[in-house]
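Work package 3, deliverable 3.1, input record:
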Amino acid sequence: MLEIKNLSKSFSSTKVLDDISCSIELGKLVALTGKNGSGKTTFLKCISNIMNTDNGKISYRDSQFLFLNDKSNIFSDLTIKNNLKCILRFYNQKINKDLYLKYISLLGLEKFENLPLKNLSKGNLQRNKLLIALNVSWEYLLIDEPLVNLDHSGKSILKEIFLKFKSQNKTVIFSTHNFSYLSDICDECFEFEKGKLVHVN
Amino acid sequence: MLINLIKNEFLLEFKSSNNLFYMTFFALSCLMLSVFSFPPSELNEVTILSGFFWIIVALVSIKLIENSFSREKEEGLYDLIYTSPFDTSKAFIAKLISFSLILLGVQLFIFMIYSMISSLIAFSLILNIIMLCLVTNVGLIGLALLIYPITALNNSRSFLFPLILFPLIVPLLIHSSNIFISLCLNLNLSLYTESAMLLLTFALIAIVLGINFFERLIKY
C-alpha cells in the first residue's frame, strides 16, 4: 500500500501541493482530476520520488514504479523495439518477444516498427507509451494524461489495458481532464484544487 | 546491470543523429585550424597539441554531457529513467565509463589524423598517451556529470554549465598538458609526478562525489 502523509511542495513562494494525505491500495485504478495547475503532475512526480518534497512522508516498501510523464518518453532516434529494449535495460529486464509482438499488434504499431520514433504521430507516440507499460514489469504505474492525442479506438484499447492491469493486481495512478471516459473502471478519484486534495470519490 | 547501462549509453550515443560525428569533426577542424595558423616548427606543434588539444577536448566533453542529459529530458525520459529501480550511482558510473571511452575514441582519432601530418606523436608513445587521456577524461567527465545537474534547472544552463565547469577543470587541463609535453619531447617523466598525482586525485574525487551525490543532484 502507498501511504502519503502531509505532503507539501512549493515552487518559490507558490504552494503547489498543500498538506496532502491519502492512501492507495495495491490493485486500484486511481484517477487524479482537477483544473490546470491544481497539482496533479507534481503529485505524481513527488510520489515517484523524482521530485524533492518540502514536507511529508511517502511510504512504500521497495515498490517498482514506472512513471510515464506527459511527454513522449522516447529516445527519438531509436525504433520502437530499440527504445523499448533501452527502457527495459534500466529495469534490468529483457524483451519478451512473444509479448512484444502481441502488444504491438494490439496497439496497431506494427507497420511503424522500423521507423525512428521521431517520425511517429502524437497519437502513435501515446500508443507507444502503452506498449512500454505493457512490456515493463512494475507494481505502480504513474501516467500523466494517458488519454491525450488518442483517437476513439486508442481510447478503448487504453481502457482494455487498464482493466488488464487491474486484474493483475497492479496499481495505476493517472491524471486526466477526461475523467468521464474512464469513470466506470476507476476505483477512486482524487480531485485536486489549488494544491489541495478536496475530494476523494 | 552496470553493463546494461553502459550498453545503453553507447547505443544512444551511436544512434544519436547529431552528436558523435559532429563532435569529432568539430574537434578535428579546430585542431587543424590551429596547426595551419602557425608557422611550422616543433615548438609550435607542441604548443598546439598540448594547449589547443586539451581545450578542444574540454569543449567536446561539455557537448557530450549536455547532449546526453538533454536527450533524456527532451522527450521526457528523465523521469522514467531515474524512477526505475537501479541504483543511481550506477547510472553515474555507466555515464562516466562510456563517455570517457567515447572521448578517448575521439582523441585517438584526432591523434591518428594528426600523426599523418606531424612526426611529433611516435607510435611507441601511444600506450602512455592512452593512459593519460583516460585518467584526464575520468576527472573531466566526472566533474561535468556533477555540474550539469546542478545547472540543469536554470534557464541559462548552456551558459552556466561551462562557466562553472571551466575554472574547475583548468588545473586538470594544465597538468595533462604538462605531461603531454614531457611525453612528446621525451623529457624525464619523474619531474611530472606531481601532475600525475593531481590528475589521479581529480579522477578519484569525481568518482567518490558522483557515487555519493549524483542521486541528490538529479532530483529536482
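The two ends of chain B are 25 Å apart (CA to CA).
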